[in-house]
Amino acid sequence: MNITWLGHSGFRIEIGDQILLVDPWITGNPSFPDGAEEDATQGATFILITHGHGDHAGDAVRLSNKLGAPLICIHELSEIWGTNAETRGMGKGGTQTLGTVSVTMVNAVHSSSIDYKGGIQYAGGEAGFIVKGEGHAIYISGDTDIMADMEWIGDYHKPNIGLICAGGHYTMDMAAVAYAAKRYFNFSTLIPSHFGTFGLLAQSAQPLIDALPEVNVLTPKPMEPITI
Fold first, then answer.
1. Considering the domain 2-219, what is its CATH architecture?
2. CA 9 to chain centre
3. Cα separation of 43 and 7, whole Å?
4. Residues 137, 140, 144, 145, CA torsion sign
5. What are the start-end ranges of the E strands in 135-205?
6. Pseudo-torsion of CA 172, 176, 182, 184, nearest 10°?
7. How far is it, in rounded angstroms, from Cα 142 to Cα 62?
8. CA atoms of 171 and 118, how far apart (whole Å)
9. Can you tell me the distance from the alpha carbon of 202 to that of 62, in angstroms, rounded to the nearest whole number?
10. What average pLDDT values come out for the chain (228 residues) when binned by 10 residues?
11. Distances from the Cα of 162 to the Cα of 58, 114, 117, angstroms
């Protein structure tokens, strides 16, 4: 399995017989390397979107049509996008089987909207995902604060890999992620995201690395693949 951070909250996950893109924000993303879109998106089979904000979903419809990769997202967002792209809407607690991989939508605590006709439109609830395949369970937090649901997510799904928002201001910060990881999860590998992109966000993951010496906290450069 290969996991590639695309900067901000975007990931490319090559797992089983699938290539999944998660929140692949490319256009206007200062963390994403210039000219790397083809390498980042090549062969993608599905695109997972945690919520409608532009720094997560801004390229969703464009990339879905370019790649022929359906969008997996919450029902309301799938209805909004459904006339412009192929969508597979779902609800929290639901699971979709994608070849040898399963994707379960779980709760997050944030908000979700899209820019629509010069205003803001509600876009269904915010979410995270559990992706299972190759004997691994990956928890993709989406944008969230610490929440009590993490207790059952950790106990029920038992994720060994976490792709977790950690930049603060809009989401958990590094200290909160460390607390949640210790209390609710048993990660062997943790890759923080949603940091370093803008000045409001944390610029370094070192506090998280220092707080979790028993976890392999990885901070790859964008487009640097990690093999697990």
1. 4-Layer Sandwich (3.60)
2. 6
3. 19
4. positive
5. 136-140, 161-165, 189-193
6. -50
7. 21
8. 26
9. 29
10. 98 98 97 97 98 94 98 96 96 98 97 78 90 98 98 98 97 98 98 96 97 98 97
11. 23, 26, 36
Helix%, strand%, coil% for the chain, nearest 5: 20, 30, 45
Cα separation, 10 vs 62, in Å, equals 15
- Given the structure tokens 């919450």, which residue do they identify? 74
pTM here is 0.97
What gap in Å lies between CA 115 and CA 143, rounded to an integer? Answer: 18
Give the pLDDT score at 168.
97
Quote the tokens at residue 123.
């876009």
